[in-house]
Amino acid sequence: MPASWYQLSLKAPAAALDTISNFLIERGSPGVVLKRGEVRAFFARPVKSSALKRDIHRFLRGIKGIYPGIGEQPQRWTILQDRNWNNSWRRFFSPQKVGKAFWITPPWVDPPQSRRRQVITIEPGMAFGTGTHATTRCCLEFLEEATASVEQGSITALDVGTGSGILAIALAKLGASRVLALDSDPVALKAARDNVRINRVRRTVRLSRCGLGTVKGSFAVVVANLTAETIIDLAALLQESVSAGGYLILSGILKPKSVEVLRRFSPHPFKLARQTTQKEWVTLLLKRKG
Fold first, then answer.
1. What is the 3-state secondary structure (H, E, C) of 84-100?
2. pLDDT, tens digit, for every residue of 173-210?
3. DSSP state, 233?
């Protein structure tokens, strides 16, 4: 573990604190502290602070319509010296049930024994996707549904913006014979590579920095947990990547943007199979017409 940490202090309306906390944890913070009208999050050094600040700014701007007053006060960053975080930060993570298929657990905790659930071990780090955020959980639940509807042994899958690799790992454990996981961030790919190794799915999951436009062929299941704006920009490429009768899972979509996203994919060539909303996040399960 590093010798020092960044502390982010961020003022926000009380109603938004939980949403912001979940995002910051998914973005790599091992834990947050909530004060009245304030979130304090901690990030291990070294960290790509410019990319992190940009992502946080973009996220706050995205939820401003839901929580007026967000972003009016600047983010405050402070460098903290080691305060025995090596052990204390781990208490923020514990095994979690997701859907009907999985336990999500950090590597230092033994997951509960279960015959029905598989274990996905995720090392909290500098990449999005530890299973606590609503978008990740909804994607995992829809992956269960989609893979159950595709003939086993013929499931090929694409994970666009893999982050920690959690969705690609889930696809491998749900029976996919081949999973291609894309991310342009080398930090995310390193985290994903470690998690793929820990979960023993290296034979199934291939990680790549290549862009979606360079991917050839189509897949039975495609998942993209991004942002509404990015999904809309990639709409044509995402459509082409799904095989006839296949499934497309889209998440990271704030409620006000969901109609616009859905309009880009449905009714042609997709139909809406299911939609779920958790807090301010919408996740779509779309089926491509045969």
1. CHHHHHHHHCCCEEECC
2. 999 999 999 998 887 899 899 999 999 999 999 999 99
3. H
Q: SS3 for 32?
A: strand
Q: Which CATH class is domain 128-288?
A: alpha beta
Please say whether the structural domain 4-86 has been given the CATH code 3.30.70.1170: yes
Q: How many residues belong to the chain?
A: 290
User: Helices (H), strands (E): how many in the chain?
Assistant: 9, 14
Strands, E assignment, the chain:
4-11, 32-35, 38-44, 76-81, 96-98, 102-105, 118-121, 156-160, 178-182, 205-208, 219-225, 242-254, 270-278, 281-288
The dihedral built from the CA positions of residue 141, 92, 35 and 55, taken in this order, carries a sign that is negative
Nearest one of 247, 240, 246 to 274, comparing CA atoms: 247
DSSP-assigned letters across all residues of 167-180: HHHHHHHTT-SEEE
CB 166 within 8 A of CB 199: no
Question: Checking DSSP bridges between strand 4-11 and strand 76-81, what pairing results, if any?
Answer: antiparallel
Cα 179 from Cα 202, distance rounded (Å):
10
Considering the entire predicted model, what is its pTM?
A: 0.79
Domain ranges of the chain: 4-86, 128-288
Distance of CA 262 to the CA centre of its chain: 20
pLDDT in tens, 221-243: 999 999 899 999 999 999 999 99
